[in-house]
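Below is a filled-in request sheet from our internal design queue. Each sheet records the structural input a requester submitted and the sequence that came back. We keep these sheets so that new team members can see what a complete request looks like end to end.

REQUESTER: design group, bay 2
PRIORITY: normal
MODE: inverse folding
CHAIN LENGTH: 429
BACKBONE (tokenized):
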């Protein structure tokens, strides 16, 4: 008897998603909890696992179709029934008879552990890398076969690369004849050379990218956005990290980064200037006696903002662990709706991409966002002397409907002072 594969719960207020990719084809063997399809929602991409083991039967929807929570998208056939006999169906890659394991060849594909290690180093699809998202199965195939994904034309929805595209490219790579060195390639004549070829490509926006666009444009339309700037001498934080990085990593199992310093400094500022940690709801202002910090993270599908909850009550180590976990799961595409729900204030670090200065846009319904930028040595005046210091520009964009300029400047100044003198964070000054 066939088992049904249904769309799982996608999170609060999310009732539907889009079939982004089928990870298995009809007739493929499927294990329990093995992903068979990837769903795109307004916030995250979610893989749909198989509830049972067997053979993938009918796919009831095509790539690009919209499906509601609870809808049956596929069936899983019993392996014995599908085979028409009592002999279980074996996966295709198994041989008909057991044979001794061959000695590793020099060009043998990397093992699973090596593949997992390399996944983080693989360029992820995005606006600046690839036009589409690489699913986990596609990324694994890329590593196994040594294929450059930027050189492969995707046949999936919106030009998405599928596993079959990578396998086809790998087969073509093996079949390609070795280049001949005896006969030089003919030099094309001027008349046969195409001059100034211009091409266009239209790629439909993913569901997540459409949602990001609507929310950011909505923030511009609804809020009275303004940005104030300051610069920060990072000397004290850099020296603290250098002095305690080994002990910190040994005790907590995580590196001491800059984000925990800015998170704790922001908590000080939001405590003293509560309007920066508030938001407008109807004709009321909602204040919070807690700080839930949304941390902007770059993911294969686009920018996501998981939330470090109760940051005001967490240690530096706990904040670093939370952020590291979010970053890892964003790359893997395993963040959930609950991870991104809520948030009272946002920190966005454009410095990791080399940004010198920016005016970040608030994350509705929040009223403020702190933008961090790259650190660079600059000459500044100290005690009447010109000295070189590692400096960073910081920016606070805010909704002027609820936050006055004085409050915004004060909050940013508190953050600056806490970073330049980290002792303030210890004594709550």
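RETURNED SEQUENCE:
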């Amino acid at each position: 008897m066939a088992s049904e594969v249904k769309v799982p719960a996608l999170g609060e207020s999310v009732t539907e998603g889009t079939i982004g990719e089928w990870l298995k084809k009809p007739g493929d063997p499927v294990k329990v909890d093995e992903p068979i399809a990837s769903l795109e929602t307004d916030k995250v991409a979610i893989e749909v696992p198989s509830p049972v083991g067997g053979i993938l039967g009918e796919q009831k929807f095509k790539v690009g179709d919209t499906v509601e929570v609870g809808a049956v998208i596929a069936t899983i056939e019993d392996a014995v029934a599908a085979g028409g006999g009592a002999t279980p169906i074996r996966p295709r890659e198994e041989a008909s008879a057991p044979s001794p394991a061959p000695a590793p060849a020099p060009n043998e594909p990397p093992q699973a552990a090596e593949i997992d290690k390399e996944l983080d180093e693989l360029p992820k699809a995005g606006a600046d890398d690839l036009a589409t998202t690489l699913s986990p199965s596609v990324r694994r195939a890329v590593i196994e076969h040594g294929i450059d994904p930027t050189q492969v034309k995707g046949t999936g929805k919106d030009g998405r690369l599928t596993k079959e595209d990578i396998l086809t490219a790998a087969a073509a790579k093996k079949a390609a004849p070795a280049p001949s060195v005896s006969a030089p390639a003919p030099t094309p004549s001027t008349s046969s050379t195409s001059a100034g070829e211009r091409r266009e490509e239209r790629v439909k926006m993913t569901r997540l990218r459409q949602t990001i666009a609507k929310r950011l444009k909505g923030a511009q339309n609804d809020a009275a956005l303004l940005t104030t700037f300051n610069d920060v001498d990072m000397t004290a934080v850099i020296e603290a990290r250098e002095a305690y990085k080994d002990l910190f990593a040994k005790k907590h199992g995580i590196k001491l980064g800059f984000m925990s310093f800015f998170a704790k400094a922001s908590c000080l500022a939001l405590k003293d200037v509560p309007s920066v940690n508030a938001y407008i709801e109807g004709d009321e202002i909602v204040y919070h006696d807690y700080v839930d910090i949304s941390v902007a993270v770059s993911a294969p599908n686009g920018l996501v903002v998981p939330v470090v909850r109760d940051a005001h009550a967490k240690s530096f180590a706990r904040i670093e662990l939370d952020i590291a976990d979010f970053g890892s799961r964003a790359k893997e595409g395993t963040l959930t709706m609950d991870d991104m729900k809520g948030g009272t204030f946002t920190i966005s670090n454009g410095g990791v991409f080399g940004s010198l200065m920016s005016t970040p846009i608030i994350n509705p319904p929040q009223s403020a966002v702190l933008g961090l930028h790259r650190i660079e040595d600059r000459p500044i005046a100290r005690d009447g002397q010109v000295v070189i210091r590692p400096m960073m520009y910081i920016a606070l964009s805010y909704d002027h409907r609820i936050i006055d300029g004085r409050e915004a400047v004060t909050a940013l100044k508190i953050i600056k002072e806490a970073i330049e003198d980290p002792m303030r964070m210890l004594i709550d000054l």
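SHEET NOTES:
- The CA atoms of residues 102 and 333 lie 35 Å apart.
- Residues 84-113, 115-132 have pLDDT under 50 and may be disordered.
FILED BY: M.R.
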